[in-house]
Design goal:
Elements: H1 20-35, E1 46-53, E2 60-62, H2 64-78, E3 79-92, E4 95-106, E5 119-131, E6 134-142, H3 144-150, H4 162-165
Parallel strand pairs: 1-6
Antiparallel strand pairs: 1-2, 3-4, 4-5, 5-6
Amino acid sequence: MKGSRPEQAVLSRDTDLRKTNETRAVIEGMVDGLNDHRIADIGEFFSSGFRWMGNTGCGTKTGLKEFQDNWQKPFQAAFSDKTCIDEARLYMGEWAAAFGRQEATHSGLFMGLEPTGKRVEIRYMDFWKVEEGKITDNWVMVDFPHVLAQLGVDVFNGEGWEAFDRGERQPPQPD
C-alpha cells in the first residue's frame, strides 16, 4: 500500500492494563453462565445497553433484552445439550478475546431446517470490551456455514474455496 496508512487499533490502544484481572473474571463468569444456560440473570455480566455485533446470519443485538430474545432464546431452542468450549482466551486490560466451539444437538428449527437430532460443532470467535465490570461490546463471528454443512446444506453451492485446497479447482490469479 503506497501513501498514508489507515489508523490501526484505535479501540484498544489506550486500554488500562491494570484492569486485565477484572476483565478475566467477568468473561470467565459469563462463559460459565452461558454453559449453565442462564438467560434471565445473564445481565450480571452485561451492561443493559451493550452491543452484540454478529456476522451475517447472526445479526446485531442492542441491549440485553434483544440479546436474550433474538439470540439466546432462539439459539437454545435450535440447539440443546449445548456446551461452550473456549480453546483459547486472551486478556489485555478492558479487552478479551476467545475462539472455540460449542457442541450441541440440533433439536429445534435452525435457518429453516427442521430438527435432525444430529450433534454439531459450532465454531466461533468473540472479542469483548469490559467497562466497570460489565461487557459493553461483543464482536462475534459464528461459523454458520460450517453448522449448515454438518446438517447437509452447502451454502456455497459447491463453489467454496476448499476445492482449491483439494486441487479440484485452480484459484483465479490477479492480473
